[in-house]
Amino acid sequence: MTGRRAGRPLVPAYLSTGGVTRSSRPQLERLSVLTGSRLPVPAGPSAGLPAAALSLLDALDGGSLTVVEAAALLRLPVSAVRVLAADLIDRDLASARAPIPPARRFDPDLLKRVADGLRALKHH
Amino acid sequence: MASAPSSTTDGIHLPDTARDLVKILVAGPFGVGKTTLIDSVSEIRPLHTEELLSEASAQVDDLDGVREKSTTTVAIDFGRISLPGGIVLYLFGTPGQERFRSLWEDIAYGALGALVLVDSRRIDASFDVLGLVEETGLPYAVAFNAFPDAPDHHTDAQLRAALDLEPGTPMVTCDARDANASIDALLALVHHLIDRHPPEHR
Ligand SMILES: Nc1nc2c(ncn2[C@@H]2O[C@H](COP(=O)(O)OP(=O)(O)OP(=O)(O)O)[C@@H](O)[C@H]2O)c(=O)[nH]1
Ligand SMILES: [Mg+2]
């Protein structure tokens, strides 16, 4: 067996372009939670909502979904759902919240609660 | 149209109690058991998204990549586990090949850490994914997925050396088809994360 460092050059992370945000609003994360506002949707072609955006609104009728769940449900790439959701948010037809309130992201108890929860899942 | 069919969305919507959504990457090369592990522990039928690859992988110096924009897709599956206290844990099956780098970074954003699955019959297939995990700076644990014909003549020290793991990186064996074994592998990672972040003020 040989070690993995041999002959495997790493491209430094700073050469990568991933994570660049192009839009003015903060990029929706995969786990951002989308919720429909339940306002009446303006009908007719003049409303200018593409069919896919209406499907997304439809999916949110049943409750909140993360961006990635909406993408799976609608069979769309995550990048497409980000665009559709941003459009709905601009029109106040939906809202988004971060996956976890910023203050809790570094809550030291969070990991412990994840561990406790996982342990409780085990079948004996 | 009185009643829309709802069977396709059953169980997918978030419970109202969901508050803290966190994720762990289940990473590894093709066929190592990512989908199997996610399937074993997920409360929803594992879902997947089709991701456009060339969009993500096109690089400045790669004109072919730009020309072939949006031609390739890769399926990324994910599962979900609701835990007490409003925590929802997502598991993302993440392929580790170098050409998935941009996609990788997008999926890894905000993740707690990664469980790297290794097939001990072909550990070099995991070198790429270990490189990506380390560059992303994600803390990780390694789980050797137990295939029946896996060689048993390697010692832990040999495996650790071959994978070039730091002494503190957890190494466990698991059977991805078994829920308890998969949970144990995830727990090895989460305990590692806890050890890295000793609680302050106490
Ligand atoms: N014996 C044994 N077989 C396993 C185990 N985990 C997965 N397999 C089998 O290995 C095959 C590949 O597993 P998958 O879960 O599809 O692997 P994957 O990592 O999702 O593969 P890709 O999505 O193609 O990258 C399947 O036939 C599984 O049934 C394991 O722990 N033990
Ligand atoms: Mg798979």
TrEMBL record, chain A:
Instruction: Supply the Pfam families for this chain.
Output: DUF742
**Per its record, how is this protein called by name?**
DUF742 domain-containing protein
InterPro entries documented for this protein: DUF742
UniProtKB/TrEMBL annotation, chain B:
User: What's the family?
Assistant: Belongs to the GPN-loop GTPase family.
Task: Extract the InterPro entries matched here.
Answer: Gliding_Motility_GTPase, Gpn, P-loop_NTPase
Ubl conjugation among the record's keywords?
A: no
Q: Kindly list the GO molecular function terms attached to this UniProt entry.
A: ATP binding; GTP binding; hydrolase activity
Q: Which organism is it from?
A: Streptomyces resistomycificus
Q: Which Gene3D superfamilies match?
A: P-loop containing nucleotide triphosphate hydrolases
> Record keywords: Hydrolase included?
yes
Keywords on record: ATP-binding, GTP-binding, Hydrolase, Nucleotide-binding
**What name does the UniProt record give this protein?**
ATP-binding protein
Cross-referenced Pfam families: ATP_bind_1
